[in-house]
Structure formats: C-alpha cells, structure tokens
C-alpha cells in the first residue's frame, strides 16, 4: 500500500494543479509562470542530486575511488534517452508556435495533443525516479528509507502542481476547450508517472543489480529537462530573476525534504 501511494502521489500533484482550471478564469500570467517554472527546476535539480545521484554513488562505494562510474554512466544514458525522445516524439512547448520532432506526425496531430506530449515527456523520468527509489527501498539497502522515498515522491508532486496548471489553463483560455476537457488533458499528462514507476517496480527483480545506474539514469533525464527546456523558458524576456528566485526556493525545499526525511 505504501508503494502504491508513493508512485501515485506525483500524479495527484499534477491532477490537483490541472484542477485550477475550475477555479481560475484566465491562464497564469507570465511572471507567475516564470516563478513556478523556476521552482520546478529547483526541485528537480535538488532531487537529482540528493535523492538519486548521491544514493547511487553510496550503493557503489565498494568500487572505491571508481564509485562514480555507474552514476556517471547512468547519468549520461538518461541525457541521451531524453535527447532521442526530443527528436523522435512530436511535441509543442508552451509559448511556442513551432512544434518539434518528426515532421510527418506533427502534421497529423492537434496542437493540444502535442502540448500534452511535451509535458508527458518530462514526466517519464520523474515516474522512473520514483519507481527506482522504491526499488531501492525494497532491495533492503540502508541507503534508502521509506521516508526518503516519500520525500522524493512528495517533492515531485509539489513541482507537478504548477505543471498541471500551466498545461490546463492555456488549453482553456487559448484553445477554447471547456473546463472539464482542459482538466482531463492536464491530468492526463501526469498519468505516465505512476505507469513509468509501476513498470520499473515490475522489473525490479532484474533492476536491483543495476540500481545505481537506474537512479542516475533518472537524474540525467530530469536534468536534461531542466537545462534544455525549463531554465531557458524562465530566462526568456523580462524579469528572468523571478525564475532564479523560484529555483532557489524549490532547490532549498527539496533539499530540506530529503535531508530531514532521508
């Protein structure tokens, strides 16, 4: 039951944010959006370091000075995985008119669908991260505790809240969707998280031996999203310092969650 709740918490964060479409009339203004995207970036960076990369290296400490190798390999594989997805999956980022990915599928998909695909791509590594840390918990190692696993899950849920709102509100105001459908699209972008987490858990028997690589893989994929998409979005235009403030708050909050409950 604890594990089921752990992998579902991030999705609930996305759904709660998407529900903002029922209470807010317009979409989030650009200044608030910068602040929220910066916050999400800070949470993801801190989670990648304290919840994923450090435990990965602790699990490999038997390798001595080479304990960084599994973490480095997994990290680079996670970056490459998201890079390939960026090129292979048609998607559209917020505040952009030109979609990315293969040209032929782009012509047959609605913009709303490609918006959701963009957020879904972000959520896959987050779901994998939650699944991987619960695999680490089940493996019985002392590096990961139940509270540490839930700290990561809750931290990702907190940063998913603004993501859910940022996807559902523009669909309502710009695309003319009704509130229920906009909520569905926003919430649906997060359903991939428990699915990815569940797949990792199902394969846990095979993944325990490479758990350090898996944890760092999720960290690399998450940091790809931060560096390639979230931070550039917060830096665009005026008042980019709001993104920096949001980043600092998110980083400190996630760091505190992990250290206090780890």
Question: How would you characterize the overall build of this protein?
Answer:
The structure is a single chain. With 262 residues, this protein is mainly α. The chain has one domain. It has eleven helices and no strands. Helix 3 (68-88) packs across helix 10, helix 5 runs parallel beside helix 8 (192-202) and helix 5 packs antiparallel against helix 10. The longest helix has 30 residues, at 30-59.
What is the residue-mean pLDDT, rounded to a whole number? 83
User: Strand count, sense and closure of the main sheet?
Assistant: none
What percent of residues adopt helix (DSSP H or I)? over 70%
The total count of strands amounts to: 0
Question: Regions with pLDDT < 50 over 5+ consecutive residues?
Answer: none
Spell the H/E element sequence.
Answer: HHHHHHHHHHH
Query: Helical region count?
Result: 11
Report how far apart the termini are: 20 Å
General form: globular
Strand % is under 5%
Helix-strand category: mainly alpha
What's the short version?
This protein is mainly alpha-helical and 262 residues long. The chain has helices at 2-18, 30-59, 68-88, 103-108, 111-138, 146-173, 179-188, 192-202, 204-207, 211-235, 241-261. The chain has one domain (2-261).
List the helices and strands and how they pair.
Layout: H1 2-18, H2 30-59, H3 68-88, H4 103-108, H5 111-138, H6 146-173, H7 179-188, H8 192-202, H9 204-207, H10 211-235, H11 241-261
Helix pairs in contact: 1-5, 1-6, 1-7, 1-8, 2-6, 2-10, 2-11, 3-10, 5-6, 5-8, 5-10, 6-7, 6-11
């Amino acid at each position: 039951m604890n594990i089921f709740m752990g992998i579902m918490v991030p999705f609930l964060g996305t759904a709660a944010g998407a529900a903002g479409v029922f209470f807010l009339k317009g979409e989030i203004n650009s200044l608030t959006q910068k602040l929220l995207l910066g916050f999400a970036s800070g949470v993801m960076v801190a989670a990648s370091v304290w919840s994923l990369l450090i435990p990965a290296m602790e699990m490999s400490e038997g390798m001595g000075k080479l304990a960084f190798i599994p973490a480095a390999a997994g990290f680079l594989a996670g970056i490459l995985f998201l890079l390939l997805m960026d090129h292979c999956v048609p998607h559209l980022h917020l505040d952009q008119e030109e979609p990315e990915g293969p040209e032929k599928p782009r012509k047959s998909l609605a913009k709303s669908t490609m918006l959701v695909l963009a957020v879904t791509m972000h959520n896959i590594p987050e779901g994998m991260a939650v699944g991987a840390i619960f695999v680490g918990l089940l493996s019985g190692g002392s590096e990961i505790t139940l509270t540490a696993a839930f700290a990561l899950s809750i931290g990702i849920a907190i940063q998913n809240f603004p993501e859910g709102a940022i996807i559902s509100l523009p669909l309502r105001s710009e695309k003319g969707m009704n509130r229920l459908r906009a909520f569905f699209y926003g919430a649906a972008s997060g359903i991939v998280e428990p699915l990815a987490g569940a797949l990792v858990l199902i394969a846990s028997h095979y993944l325990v031996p490479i758990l350090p690589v898996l944890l760092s893989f999720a960290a690399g994929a998450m940091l790809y999203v931060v560096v390639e998409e979230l931070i550039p979005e917060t830096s665009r235009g005026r008042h980019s310092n709001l993104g920096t403030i949001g980043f600092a708050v998110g980083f400190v909050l996630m760091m505190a969650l992990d250290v206090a409950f780890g």
